[in-house]
Amino acid sequence: MKKKTLDPPKQGPQEIIATLKKVAAVAEELLSQVMTFAVPLTDDQRKTARRPHDAFFTEAPDFLRASASHPPLLAATGVDPQEVQGVLDADTELRPLVQVVEKLASLLSDTHTAWVDNAYDKVLEIYGVAKSLATRDGSLKDVVKPGSEMFAVHPAKPTPKT
Q1: Going by C-beta distance under 8 Å and a sequence separation of 6 or more, which residues neighbour residue 9?
Q2: What share of residues in the chain are helix, strand, coil (percent, to 5)?
């Protein structure tokens, strides 16, 4: 069964790359702005951070309002319910942005995967034909040799240069 090939992009590669470079430049500028308030986590922090279910986000405001009317509770914890509510309000605005960025990252990753997969198929096709023709045309051996290394199941270790 022949693998389905991808439809070629409607733009040429140079136009696509130019557009992606513009997007990357904007993303870099936005990233520098985000870094002024972002909270980068270590891998361990990311693994152990709590991810509450939706009820937390709907119930926490009522809980915080109720706790605000009990000064001894606030004194014992040192927590300012209004400050916490401000963080939750900011997060409410942040979540849709995270979804957009995650979708963008996913689309770019999928595009990269599809392009490389398509290119791999084309190069493998050329290699297969060259290998077959090389039995009758010795000039194709310079094409077959790098192809055999590139498509080896277990690529040979590079030989040290002396």
Answers
A1: 16
A2: 70, 0, 30
For 37-81, the DSSP string reads T-----HHHHHHS----HHHHHHHHHHHHHHHT-HHHHHHH---H
Determine the Cα–Cα distance for residues 160 and 15; give it in Å rounded to an integer.
Answer: 40
Residues in the chain: 162
- Name the strand (E) or helix (H) holding 161: none
Confidence of residue 72 (pLDDT cuts 50, 70, 90): very high
Q: Which two tokens stand for residue 110?
A: 């999928």
Q: pTM value?
A: 0.66
| pLDDT tens by residue, 7-51 | 656 677 788 888 889 988 998 998 899 888 889 999 999 999 999
